[in-house]
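Fig. S4 source data, part A: sequence.
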Amino acid sequence: MDISKPISLSSPEFIADKWAIFERLREEQPISKIKVSVLTLYGISRFDDCDMLLNDPRLVRNRTTATGGGSRLPFPIPKSVSVLMESMIQEDDPNHRRLRELVRKAFQPQAIKTLEERIEGYSDELLGGLNKNSGFELQNDYARHIPERMIADMVGIGHDQMPQFRSLMGSLSEGFSGLRILRTFILDMPKHLRFVREIVREKKTNPGEDILTHLIFAEEDGDRLSEDEVVAMVFLLVIAGFETTVHLITNGVHTLLQHPDQLEILRADPSLWASAVEEILRHRGPVQGTKPGWATEDIELHGVTIPKGKPIMPLLGAANHDPRKFDNPLSFDITRSPNHHLGFSHGIHYCLGAHLARAEARIGLRKLFERFPNIDFAVDPNELELQNLPAWHRYKQMPLSTGALS
């Protein structure tokens, strides 16, 4: 691949060989032009540069801050879905800090600890329903249902509302690639927004014991979230908390089956599961790049000037394999310590749901390998296809055989 030209992160050539391309970028062109859909950005591939920029106030999420006006995106979106731009993930301080303070209590480690028993119960129930004599498809039969149920619980979704909620999750996880983005924006999102607004208004009248109710009534120094901000937060829960966990579990299974020596270490010492999840996040994390940031002034790195107003993407997958930061970065080592990766980003946009995602992956993976100790790929792993989505590392499907039941 010619790295002197903008590299499309959704091109088949990149998808098939991203680790080698990341290595070339780090060594030869650490500040490079990349393409994500219709957007051309500056890609940052070295760990220290990514870490610095993720903490740099010159890099903002709200494009209008950098450009001094205009729209938040460099292309038009329907007014009906502009509320999604009010999400915390698209904001900068001080408004980002305000939104984060209003919701952070619901995602603190002690709050997530109380959810672990529920994650265990859901994992056991799902595994018990799998056919022990044949096999199953990891994502659709197991991995997706753990975060799906947890998010539904957090939002307080009733049984009769689950079909609509699953449709919403499908649009957010699969609806932004290629030409399908037009259908998502024009047809699907207005319908989903109406659905979420109905839920929010129902919770205002009939509060529940769920996180959505907490968000609606959360107060900090007399300040509360507006309805639009609550709606945007629900969408953020799905975007950040669903697909990331599905593919963290999927990538974890793939990586462990490809490294049986590390799986044996885990079986001998289950206390290493938390460490294993950290190494999966570093080695094969599902999120390979951040949301675009925008330069509020000219930024110079390695002799390259990134002009004011231009978009920048720290390439987390490249940074997490940087030999300047990690010894033997291409090796998968569940005992790696320290392991200060960027799998959940860094700085003010560090993933608010990181503790929940870690718990879901740790418990979901441990339960799976305990239940099916002889689990293996049902097809040649070289035949497994990666999805053609920029800034992600995720498989289309993963058929597994169970072997003998434990």
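Fig. S4 source data, part B ends here. Residues 9 and 18 are 9 Å apart (CA to CA).
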